Amino acid sequence: MLENAPFDPVATGRAVIRSTIAGSLATLDEAGNPFATLVTMATLPDGRPILSLSDLAVHTHNLKRDPRASLLLVAPGGEGGNPLAGARITLVGTFERSDDPHVAWRYALHQGKAASASALPGFHYYVMNVTGSHLVAGFGNIAQVPAEDLIQDLSDCEDLLAGEKMVVEHMNDDHADAIALYAIKLLNQPGGAWRITGCDPEGIDIATSKLRARLPFPTRATTVAEAGGYLKSFAKQARSLEQ
Q1: Which of 150, 156, 226, 231 has the fewest CB atoms within 10 Å, i.e. is most exposed?
Q2: Whole-angstrom Cα distance, residue 212 to residue 205?
Q3: What's the average model confidence in pLDDT over 200-224?
Q4: Could you tell me if 169 and 135 lie in one domain?
Q5: Who contacts 33 (Cβ-Cβ below 8 Å, separation ≥6)?
Q6: Is the same domain home to 131 and 15?
Q7: Are residues 176 and 142 in the same domain?
Q8: Are both 173 and 61 inside the same structural domain?
Q9: 116 and 167 co-located in one domain
Q10: Looking at per-residue confidence, does 80 or 224 come out higher?
């Protein structure tokens, strides 16, 4: 967030969820006690977290018995220096297993090489159905963000959802130079092998092997044509800044 920008709990909460690749998962053990573990994650286009969990893990056994859990996510940069200075959000909800190929595709794209373990036997994907949240984004910036505000309603976005994979793969295969310009010129990120890891109505997620960033659309895109128009506009804008 900009230094003097007004605090927007919804935008901040969504940004934290989109920008993280790992979090602390708290499940309930047999005695009903909280059991916290470290997990890697990605998101669906609507912002719901995706986890890849081993059938052998204690947290998986806990979720199969009781799907209720919470997930603590910390925005990049909040782990160093004063760990309490960074934005973080605690999500509350339930998890359910998913065999949807699009879930697997989103997770693999977001995690990159780290997703290889998910291809091993005994690993399955779980999607979090968020019911509430608690956001802390600095001194005085604290909010309970309702799930219906945090997670996008995509009922009007069938065209974009159906075409997301085509958009992402086309950009990564044929326009890697433009994606790098998005990162460097529009988001003030360092150079690197940037790729798009997701496209949803509010923007695109981009990443290198170590960095994550989010480029929002000026207004909501519900179709492939609208998203493509924004991507072309971003490229034109970024190239003008090279002059």
Answers
A1: 156
A2: 7
A3: 94
A4: no
A5: none
A6: yes
A7: no
A8: no
A9: no
A10: 224
Domain of 173? 158-240
Tell me if 154 sits within 8 A of 46, measured CB to CB.
yes
Residue 118 is encoded by which pair of tokens? Answer: 């998910």
Amino acid 78: pLDDT: 59
Q: What is the pTM of this model?
A: 0.90
pLDDT, average across residues 131-147 = 91
Q: What are phi and psi of 109, to 5 degrees?
A: -65, -45
pLDDT at position 5: 67
Please, which pLDDT band fits residue 195 given cuts at 50, 70 and 90? very high
Phi and psi at residue 17, to the nearest 5°: -60, -45
CB distance 211 to 187 below 8 Å:
no
The torsion angles phi and psi of 154, rounded to 5 degrees, stand at: -105, 20
> Is the residue at 3 inside a domain?
no
What CATH number is associated with residue 234? 3.20.180.10
The DSSP result for the chain, as a single string, is: --TTSPP-HHHHHHHHHHH-SEEEEEEE-TTS-EEEEEEEEEE-TTS-EEEEEETTSHHHHHHHH--EEEEEEE-TTTTSSSTTSS-EEEEEEEEEEE--HHHHHHHHHHHGGGGGGGGSTTEEEEEEEEEEEEEE-STT-EE---HHHHS---TT-HHHHHHHHHHHHHHHHH-HHHHHHIIIIIH-PPPS--EEEEEETTEEEEE-SS-EEEEE-SS---SHHHHHHHHHHHHHHHHHTT-
Label residue 216 exposed, middle or buried (CB < 10 Å: 0-12, 13-18, 19+): middle
Q: What is the pLDDT of residues 20-64, one digit of tens each?
A: 999 999 999 999 999 999 999 999 999 999 999 999 999 999 999
167 has which bridge partners? none
Q: Is residue 208 part of a domain?
A: yes
Q: Is residue 201 part of a domain?
A: yes
